[in-house]
Design brief:
Helix content is 77%, strand content 0%. The chain is an all-alpha fold. It has two domains: 150 residues, Tetracycline Repressor, domain 2; 130 residues, Four Helix Bundle (Hemerythrin (Met), subunit A) (Up-down Bundle), CATH 1.20.120. 48% of the residues are buried.
Length: 298
């Protein structure tokens, strides 16, 4: 009996992990940030909740496809070798591909019904960028893989913004640009910490191609530019809560990236990776808090 319960729990944990829920949550938070950044009346709470679910499940479908498609690559990397498809606990097959496609179609339809066709388009585009453009095409072939992959988060911002106004105001467009610039240094820092895995598998991640020292300088440049750009919405209609969050997150990210330039070690690379997550969390939380607490009538 205990073994059966343990097996059920293990299966459930594996099933959840396939859909990369942490990434899906950040993508969903990005969509809500896009909604909060957009001038104009918010959607009704019920419709906003349905849009958030649509973005979450579209991202989850893309994450599951990523693990399904990369199962052989994952099996060769220490960081990912225990993923369910990589180690054989789950078997790839038509049922998985069909289920992922069904989730993506349902999510797109839900976004259209909860908001409008533009929100649905951006929801679908973000998932397809991650699943097809990044996972299938660019990751094994180009050093620009994660640069273009950053569009997935940008499209999530636009999906949330389109629910308020499909015309898209400057504030959510700037936030989408920040998300686009945020993804590469976030992932390059992780790639620096796991460079041996990518080098051994022949994946052209930037630190493998240019070395740690050059990569660290590129990460610092990205962190500096995106942190400065993140301040610009405060010159439009965003208030001091957003500005404080953007300043705090940017200073933390840039300072960690500067340490990485001085000493491009694995420890400092992990520090940059963690600081990037904090910056994104502060930006998105600051965007929502600013709208709710400082500029509710914007």
């Amino acid at each position: 009996m205990r073994s059966a319960i343990a097996a059920s729990r293990g299966f459930a944990a594996d099933l959840v992990s396939v859909f990369k829920p942490r990434i899906a949550l950040f993508i969903t938070a990005s969509a809500l940030g896009g909604t909060a950044a957009s001038p104009g009346p918010w959607p009704e709470p019920g419709r906003l909740a349905l849009l958030a679910l649509a973005v979450f499940f579209a991202s989850a479908a893309a994450g599951a496809f990523n693990q399904l498609w990369e199962r052989e690559l994952d099996a060769r990397m220490r960081r990912t070798a225990r993923r369910p498809f990589a180690c054989g606990r789950f078997r790839a097959g038509p049922l998985w591909y069909g289920s992922i496609l069904a989730i993506l179609i349902a999510s797109t339809g839900l976004a259209a019904g909860a908001a409008n066709p533009w929100a649905a388009f951006y929801t679908l585009a973000g998932a397809l960028v991650y699943a097809l453009l990044y996972t299938v095409w660019l990751k094994p072939r180009s050093r620009l893989n994660i640069v273009v992959g950053g569009l997935a988060g940008s499209f999530a911002v636009l999906a949330g913004a389109a629910a308020v106004d499909p015309a898209l105001a400057p504030e959510p467009l700037l936030l989408a640009l920040v998300l686009f610039l945020w993804t590469p240094p976030h992932f390059w820092a992780l790639a620096m910490a796991t460079k041996e895995d990518y080098a051994g598998c022949g994946v052209p991640m930037l630190p493998v191609l240019v070395g740690d020292a050059v990569c660290a300088r590129i990460v610092f440049a990205h962190a500096l530019v995106l942190s400065l750009l993140a301040l610009l919405p405060a010159f439009f209609s965003m208030g001091p809560i957003y500005l404080a969050a953007a300043l705090a997150g940017g200073l933390g990210f840039v300072s960690k990236a500067r340490l990485l330039v001085r000493a491009p070690t694995r420890r400092n690379a992990i520090g940059v990776f963690s600081a990037s997550l904090v910056q994104l969390a502060l930006l998105l939380a600051g965007t929502v808090a600013d709208r709710l607490l400082w500029t509710p009538d914007r």
